[in-house]
Amino acid sequence: MYTSNVAVIIPSRLGSERLKQKPLQLIGDKSMIAHVVNQVQATGLKNIYVATDSELVANEVIAAGGKYIMTNTDCTSGTDRVYEALQNLDHQQQLKYVINVQGDMPFIKASVILNVIAYLKKSQYGIVTPVAKVGIDVANSSSNVKVVVDNNYKALYFSRSMIPFGATEFLYHIGIYGFRKDTLEKFVKLPQSALEIQEKLEQLRALQHDIDIGICYVDDIPISVDTIDDLNKAIEHYNLLKSTS
């Protein structure tokens, strides 16, 4: 896979509302952002950066062997932070694809990221994002975003509600977005949409402005850390992995 025209940018702000200083929280002997950096590094990609507003986060990135780009504190979304970081790259003209990997998925697998890149490159979509099939026990939480798709693997709608109604199997949305660079630029210049504000899902901005989002299927569902309960689950998972390794 030709990867020199791909950049992975991990947005990581310090001021999380639900979990104080989320990127710095320890999972085992490493901070969460260090885990994410190391997981992304396992892709073998060259252009990997953390976009942050905090010197404390930047120091963790350096300690993990990664690279960072300082961004403004007042970015309205992770995607806006990714785009601002992209503008600060000297070689951005050589890039065609930008992958937004959330900074709160400490066990994200390299294969998921590579699948997104592969599908983005071979498809006609401006945005590609992964999903995994889950049962009602996982889908039932409003923290877990569901998506419905058409027969061409195009997203029709994302919601925190149980969609489609009456289903026994659901498509769980994983928070990684692969953008063609021109689509990313178009997206961040659009105003927030009504559905985006109502559902608190920025991908709905794209759908409401006729930007198609393609779906790729993966098997792994990474732990996303938003609350102290999520952090405790991540720590338990890490300890289990360590005990069996």
TrEMBL record:
Highest taxon, organism lineage: Bacteria
InterPro entries cross-referenced by the UniProt entry: Cytidylyl_trans (IPR003329), KdsB (IPR004528), Nucleotide-diphossugar_trans (IPR029044)
NCBIfam families given in the database record: kdsB, PRK05450.1-1, PRK05450.1-5
Chain coiled-coil ranges: none
UniProt protein name: 3-deoxy-manno-octulosonate cytidylyltransferase
Any GO molecular function: nucleotidyltransferase activity
CDD domains: CMP-KDO-Synthetase
Annotated source species: Candidatus Trichorickettsia mobilis
Keyword terms of this UniProt record: Lipopolysaccharide biosynthesis, Nucleotidyltransferase, Transferase
